[in-house]
Amino acid sequence: MGGPSGTCVPWREFERRIAFEDVPSAGAFMVFSRGRDMFEVARNFAHFFAHESCGFCTPCRVGTSLLANTMDKLAAGKGSAYDMQRMQTLMRVLLSMSHCGLGHTAAKPVVQTMAAFPDAYERRLKRLDFEPAFDLDAALATARHITGRDDDWAHIVSEEA
Amino acid sequence: MSGRTFTLDGQPVPFTEGETVMEAALAAGVYIPHLCYRPGYGHHGSCKVCTVAIDGHNAASCTTRAREGMAVETATPELADMRRALVEMLFVEGNHTCPACEKSGECELQAVAYHIGMAAPRFDFFFPARDLDASHPDVILDRNRCILCELCVRASRDVDGKNVFAIGGRGIRARLIVNAASGRLGDTDLAKDDAAVRVCPVGAILRKGDAYTKPVGQRTFDLRPIAAVAIEEARRERERRRG
Ligand code: SF4
Ligand code: SF4
Ligand code: FES
Fold this sequence. Notes:
The structure holds 2 protein chains of 2 kinds. Chain A is an all-alpha fold. Helices cover 52% and strands 0% of the residues of chain A. Chain A has helices at residues 38-52, 58-75, 81-97, 101-105, 108-116, 118-126, 136-139, 141-147. The longest helix of chain A has 18 residues, at 58-75. Chain A is globular, with a radius of gyration of 15 Å. Mean pLDDT of chain A is 86; it is low at 129-133. Chain B is globular. Chain B has helices at residues 21-27, 77-93, 108-115, 151-159, 195-198, 220-223, 226-242; strands at residues 5-8, 11-14, 51-54, 57-60, 71-73, 132-133, 139-142, 165-168, 175-178, 205-207. Chain B starts with a strand and ends with a helix. Helix content of chain B is 27%, strand content 15%. By secondary structure, chain B is of the alpha+beta class. Chain B contains 7 helices and 10 strands. In chain B, the strands form 3 sheets. A 5-stranded mixed β-sheet of chain B has the order 2-1-5-3-4, with helices on one face. In chain B, strands 6-7-10 form a 3-stranded antiparallel β-sheet. The A-B interface holds A 50-59, 61-66, 69-70, 86, 89, 92-93, 96-99 and B 45-49, 51, 58, 60, 78, 82, 85-86, 89-90, 92-93, 122-124, 126, 147-148, 167, 169-174. Bound molecules: iron/sulfur cluster (2 copies) and FE2/S2 (inorganic) cluster.
């Protein structure tokens, strides 16, 4: 809702309202069918922000490119649990240290898709020997904090027996 | 004028109207790590290393005016971690091989990294291809070590009155460029004693012939930590301005 820096509303939350109080919008929205890979959508947006960064401040100039590169690394099947942690750090740096709104919101597509579609990310990590010690739910604590969410959908329950 | 204060990590800091948080802190003998700020070279605010929390909201202390009663925090673990991340970003963005660099020991990026306890960067190195310009008889420009702080841009324009440098390109491709038709430093009127040459906080603009004249162990930050050097520098600039 509202472009790449807007709010990502997964199908489970379709009862939400487009309103200032809930999901605000500047008038634009994009719809992605369930057939879409939301990881690829986020990766595309990450590149969009890296391209749009003016380069004035350190966090956005370097952070948006690091984020896009890390998404590429995951896409290439070379991602690890460490990369997921690093993306969390990048999100915090972008959100809290950037000069303007572009940097502040540049990590939003990744934060929100990580929270709403964790399997899209997990699937990529699983192709590697991925550390069973890695706790994806704990790693998403920052994302929950940033998005102000703590509902069921913001948590990941491991389905592996 | 007198009696105005804000708090910095709980301690009262006096300020005069119009001063930034950074200026007031340095005047009070409190060091806030910074890279693109230098007393006497205006207010820029691009490196973000000096970011503090003001009444719970993050802002660059070098570009934010002090206000009566504001509560400023610098020493929180979160800010310390973010500051380290920023300095790590500056290291991975360029090509810095400190042990082989002439500026080692005189370099503010290196000194700030030590001050904030940075170990190895947690991010992947970019290893960018960047140009070196040795066309000037007295000055060398090695973009591999440039952190895009724009101090040389400001110094050349505002102090030297020459406008030799600028930033070209956007995002991660931003580079320091030279205002000459050829783009080469040798084709500008830059002189080796210009403020623009002296002001570079890292080893990107160096005077030829000066390298290695000061032995390791006797360089600026070998002798004193950057906090003491910065506080002293700010005091000198205040005295200079008072005349
Ligand atoms: S410019 Fe500074 S940080 Fe970069 S290599 Fe030289 S000493 Fe190290
Ligand atoms: S050359 Fe030096 S002073 Fe100029 S922008 Fe680069 S790091 Fe800053
Ligand atoms: S010193 Fe304040 S932003 Fe660089």
